[in-house]
Structure formats: structure tokens, C-alpha cells
Amino acid sequence: MIFYNNPYRYGPKLIIVLTFSLLIVSVFNYFFYYESTEAVSSSIRLFAEAVIIVLVIKYKLVNFKCLVNFIVLVSVLNSLVVILQVIESLGYISTNLNSLVDFWGVENELMRKPGFLNSILTSSYIIFFGLVLNLMYQPKIFKYFIIIQLCALFFSARTFLMPIFFMIPIFFIFKFSFRLKLKVSIFLFFSYFLVSFVNAELIQNLVWHFNERVLPAFNVIFGLDLKADYSSRDLISHYRLPTFSEFIIGNGFPRYSELGGADPSYTRWLLQAGFLAFSLVFLLNLMLLFFLSYKKSIYNILLGCVLFITPLKGELTTATLLFSITFLYALLGAKNEFSTE
What we know:
Blueprint (H helix, E strand, L loop, with lengths): L1 H4 L1 H27 L4 H21 L5 H26 L9 H6 L15 H18 L8 H9 L3 H17 L3 H21 L1 H24 L6 H7 L7 H6 L15 H9 L1 H20 L3 H12 L12 H18 L2
């Protein structure tokens, strides 16, 4: 009860304890197997970021409003780059922005782009995060770019696209004023007919993207058929029952080796460093969900739930810098909420 009533006071200390414990487990695992140093290096980086989080909060180095504006700004800028990359891939403009895709070594797909970030999932994470904050706080300038963020998510990872189809109707009905609803409806109506008139091929490409990438994801969710889509089939291939020794202490192999856990965060830590490491990472994600949900807001609860399930797909909430930014937002938000009670 004390922790719940005063979460921002104990939260930073708990992050230190969890990340330091993960480091100890990872070091023990390395000296047990003398295989990959991946778990150790990731644990050191997480512990270092946790220390930075504590220092930032203790010395009030970051203002909550500035942090929100920064996240939304990065989200909006990356959204613009994503859309320009898609338009360039379709041959309508020449910006050379797709060279960023090659620079990061990301597969250069026609209708799926990472913006200026190093992966599709990271890009989608930032865009979704910024979109929710934009809808929640509506900064003076950035709120006019919500439609840009929505469009960019359409060409991003479907892990973050799916919640939008449920979230937007709720926001449109209950959050938007009648005048704003009218403006958005008129904008979408005339945009569709303008694009159809100017370039019917673009509409065909968008329809193809929806049919080939978006609809299969709906079949996976509503049909509960994980084999209905190539991405979900690839995802479940990473999940397997560990051996007894793997469950206890992992196998120490690199995550992308034959015996590694690959992309999903939970399988990576379970197979690489054992159940204790997996549990510590799970607790970090559970802690993030708690702090995001501490403020009784549908926006934060939705954000927390979506971020909580992302480790099933990839390592995002514990990824470099994303870990710091997400926990800073969650902890500072909880602190502001408590201080106003």
C-alpha cells in the first residue's frame, strides 16, 4: 500500500535493484558457459540507463512537459520521413531518404518504412508513443500532425497499427468536438477523391497494402489463427519449450544463433540466461505497466497495455534509449499525478 500511494519515491530504486540483479545473473551465466557476452552487455547498458533515470529524476534534470514535447516531436518528424520514403518508393518524388533504410541495413520494402530510425519496430514504437501523447496532451503545434502520425503507422509494424483501429473510433466519438469531427471528415472525404482523381495507381497501391498486410493481421487476431499470416508464423517459430538446464540457467548462446531466442524479448532472455533473467525482465515490463496505469487515463492504460505485450514480438521496452525515455515518462507522470492528489 505504501508503494502504491507513493510510487515515484520507490520506483527509481526498484529499477536499480531489478537491473543490477539482471546484471549479476547475466555475469554468472557468462562465467558458467563462456559463450556469448550479449546478456552481460545488455544488462550493463540497462543498469547504466537505470542510474541515469534515477539521477535525472533526483536532480530534476528533465521537465515532464518538455519530455512529452520531445517524444511527440521525434514521433512527428519520423512520421514525415516515413511518408516521404513511401512516396519516394512509389516513384512520385526523389528525396534520397530511402538511403537511410539501406544505411541501417533494414529490408527496403515498398510500403513499410523505418523513417530515420534503425528498425521498423523501433520506428513504430516511437510513432505510436508520440501519437498517444499527442492525443492525450495535444501540444499547441503538434496536435495538427495527428493525421500524419496515423498515416505513418499505416506503413509501420502491425503490432502498433492494430490498436489504432480500436482507439481512433473511441477518440473520434468521445474526445473530438463536433467542429473537429466535421473538419476531419471533410478532410478525409476530399483527400480520397482528390488522390483518386490525380493518381488512381496510388489508391491501388494502398488497397493492395491493406489487403496483403493489414487484413491478414485481423485474421490472426479475430480468427485466433497464428498461421494466417507470414509474420505470425515467423514469430511462433521462435517459441519453443526450453530444456531443464535452459530453464534454470539458459544456454548462453547468442540470440540469433540456432539455439537462441531471436527477436522476442522474453524468449531471448529465457534461453540465453534462464528463468531468473526472464522473470526480472518481465518484472521491469510489469512495473512499466503499473506506472503508466497509475494515472487513471484511458490513454495511459492503453499505452501501458500495448507496450506490455511488445516483448512478445521484439525487444523494445528494454531497447537502448527507449528504456530510458519510456520509464522517465512513466515515473515522472506518476510523480505529477501523486503531487496533485
